Request: fold
Amino acid sequence: MMNVKNLAGEQSILNTFISELRDIRIQNDALRFRRNLERIGEVMALEISRGLDFEVKTIKTPLGIIDTALMANHLVVATILRAGLPMHQGFLNYFDGAENAFVSAYRKYTDKAHFDIHVEYISSPELTGKTLILIDPMLATGSSFELAYQALLTKGKPSKTIMACAIASREGVENLSNNPALAHIDLWCSAIDPELNHKSYIVPGLGDAGDLAFGIKD
Reply:
């Protein structure tokens, strides 16, 4: 079964960043909203790094040498456009040697309450044997994550896959966890909310992360 890590279960500065994303008095400041997503990415990168592979390397200083445990994983940081871009940058601030991948996935509504997820564009390096970190701020039904992951598999099979989101719904987490094809994946969430509304938005959530970060789309 998928390994799920909910960082909201621990008390840290991450809770402040999440609360500001949600707060209607603060979130309409687009610059601050993007920066909070970026800071969430930074914190999650640090936490995720604790479970990666390390190897000891000898470092030469001006006055001697020292053995240091350094990350050994070949990382690819992937993002679902467009809302994931600030969080992606947060991961890159810490995983600055990582390669990058981007997937365009969006909701195409068939009526006011129903939609399909469409994937239109992929930009990715070869993934075989690498560690893939797939980022999207909001995990609602889980469909975007699943389809983006399947699309990225056309670029090769990663040795390890991690999914990371700022806020998830319990239903979305359960949907991914119950999918046997995703059982080997680690899912990291900064918070898990109890429900989805009739439009599949997370409640209490924060609204539309893409619109809050980059403006309302047509």
